[in-house]
Amino acid sequence: MIFEGLRWIIGRGVLAYEKMTAPEAPVYSMEQQAAIDAQTQGLALYEFKACPFCMKVRQEFRRKGLNVELRDARRNPAWGDELREEGGKYQTPCLKITSGDGQVEWLYESNDIIDWLGENIVIQA
Ligand SMILES: N[C@@H](CCC(=O)N[C@@H](CS)C(=O)NCC(=O)O)C(=O)O
C-alpha cells in the first residue's frame, strides 16, 4: 500500500517533469515526415507511463519527430504478456523492431534504444 502510494507520487513527478522538459518537435516537410514514418512503422515501444527511462526514450522520439507506437505494458496486460514472453523479461523501455522481412528484435535499455535510433533512422536534410 505504502509502496503503491510512493510509486504513484513518483509517477506523477515523472509525468510533470516530462511535460515541463518536452523538447520542441522539429518541423519537417510532408515528404521528410513520410520518409521518417516509413522507417518507424515497424517500431513499437513497450513502456510504463511513469518510468523515467521510458520518459527519456519518449523525449528522444519528440526531439527527432518520430511517430512510434507506444504500448503501455502495465495498463494493457496483453502487451505486458507479449513483452515477458517474446521479449524475454518484463522490463521497460523495450523497443520491438519488426523489419521489412518480418524479423523481430527486442531491444532493452534506454541508452541502447536511443543509440539504435541514432544509427538506424535516417533524417534527410
Ligand atoms: N537500465 C534500464 C532500467 C530500466 C528499468 O529499471 N525499468 C523499470 C521501470 S522504471 C522496470 O522495468 N522495472 C520492472 C518492473 O517494474 O516490474 C534502462 O535504462 O532502460
Quickly list its features.
single chain, 125 residues, alpha+beta, Glutaredoxin, four-stranded mixed beta sheet, 4 strands, binds glutathione, Glutathione_S-Trfase_N
Radius of gyration: 15 Å
Residue-averaged pLDDT: 95
Class, according to the CATH hierarchy?
Alpha Beta
Strand content: 15-25%
Return the structural class: alpha+beta
Shape estimate: globular
Order of helix and strand elements from N to C terminus: HHEHEHEEH
The helicity comes to 40-55%
Which segments are poorly predicted (pLDDT under 50) over 5 or more consecutive residues? none
Q: Classify the fold: give the CATH topology.
A: Glutaredoxin
| Biggest sheet, spatial arrangement of strands | 2-1-3-4
Give the N-terminus to C-terminus distance in angstroms.
51 Å
| The CATH fourth-level homologous superfamily | Glutaredoxin
Tally of contiguous helical segments: 5
Largest sheet: 4 strands, mixed
Using DSSP, what is the number of strands? Answer: 4
Number of domains: 1
Q: CATH architecture, please?
A: 3-Layer(aba) Sandwich
Bound molecules: glutathione
InterPro entries: Glutathione_S-Trfase_N, Thioredoxin-like_sf
Protein name: GST N-terminal domain-containing protein
Organism: Solemya elarraichensis gill symbiont
Domain GST N-terminal: 41-125
